[in-house]
Amino acid sequence: MALIGYARVSTREQNIEAQEAALRAAGAEKVFVDHGESSRIASRPQWVACLDYMRPGDTLIIRALDRIAGTERMAIETIRELGARGIRLNSLTEPFLDIDSSTPMGEAIVGIMAVLAQLRVSTIRENTRRGIEHARAQGRVGGRPRVMTAERIEAAATLRSQGKSYSQIASALRVSISSVRRGLKEEL
Questions:
Q1: Is the Cβ–Cβ distance between 168 and 181 less than 8 Å?
Q2: Is 3 left (phi over 0), alpha (psi -120 to 50) or beta?
Q3: Which of 46, 68, 111, 154 could covalently link to 32 via disulfide, CB atoms 3.0 to 4.6 Å apart?
């Protein structure tokens, strides 16, 4: 009966250390960590390794349900699969998830928790969408600043009219060839 931890972050820039430390503090003997992996993808490398590693009687410790499943359906299926294999699930932030999912009451609680986890994810997405819409209404576009300024496009057009190749223009302007092509295409 081992305590196994699983931690995940969606982007490579996010820090996983706090999740991993919390899992170890909760007694996880081994922690599997996925970096830059979406919870909507079931075949995350370390998640698959974690599932392969666990045996009946083990307990999987997670920080929150959204670490292992990105949708309500995935959460229910995952928890059912774990229960069928005799593996308990323990969430550090959702202590009521430490239940026996093989009973009717346990299965009902799992379903409710999956719905709440999906609500949380959907709320975050909706708030992000609203924020982007508001920023656009204020004239902010977001994203990476454009490399091909009006001056660079003008210089690229001049160099192109002199017979220079896209590669030569890109080198001269210190931008990528695709930026040159896009900039010149927009000018037309």
A1: no
A2: beta
A3: 46
Structure tokens at 121: 């994810």
Show the tokens assigned to 51. 């599932």
Q: Is the pTM of this model over 0.85?
A: no
Q: What share of the chain is helix, strand, coil (3-state, %, to 5)?
A: 55, 10, 35
Per-residue pLDDT tens listing for the chain (188 residues) = 899 999 998 877 778 888 899 999 999 999 999 988 887 887 889 999 999 999 999 999 998 888 888 777 788 788 888 888 989 888 888 776 666 666 777 777 777 777 777 787 788 889 989 988 898 888 887 778 889 999 999 999 999 999 999 999 999 999 999 999 999 988 76
Active-site residue, 178 included: no
Spatial CA neighbour of 68 closest among 86, 43, 85: 43
